Amino acid sequence: MLRSTNSTLQRKEAVLASNEYLREVANEPSLGMYYLQEHVKTSVPALMDVKGRFKECTKSAKTEIHSLNNSVYSVKHFCGSVPGHLDRIKARLDDVLEKLQAGQE
């Protein structure tokens, strides 16, 4: 009699343990999904805010890059044309200076 009581008790414990295990396994994915949803709910608004600021910065950077490219183009253009003008101006000033010196003698 004692043996059948122990056996029945062991079966009940085994069934209860199995039920608890199955309950945990069944709830595990939904618990993980809950935490994922909570994470998304708290993280996404902040990320969207950062994304908006990043877009503004990108737009501003593109404007500055465009201005910088225009400046580089202007400097290259002036470097190509200004030295010739400066050489001609220097030559004229030298001629005037020679004429002034010749007139003073």
From TrEMBL:
Domain of life: Eukaryota
Cellular compartments annotated: Lysosome membrane
Pfam families referenced in this protein's UniProt entry, alphabetically: BORCS8
Xref: InterPro entries: BORCS8
Signal peptide span: none
Main location: membrane
This protein's GO CC annotations: lysosomal membrane
UniProt keywords, alphabetically: Lysosome, Membrane
Similarity-based family: Belongs to the BORCS8 family.
Protein's UniProt name: BLOC-1-related complex subunit 8 homolog
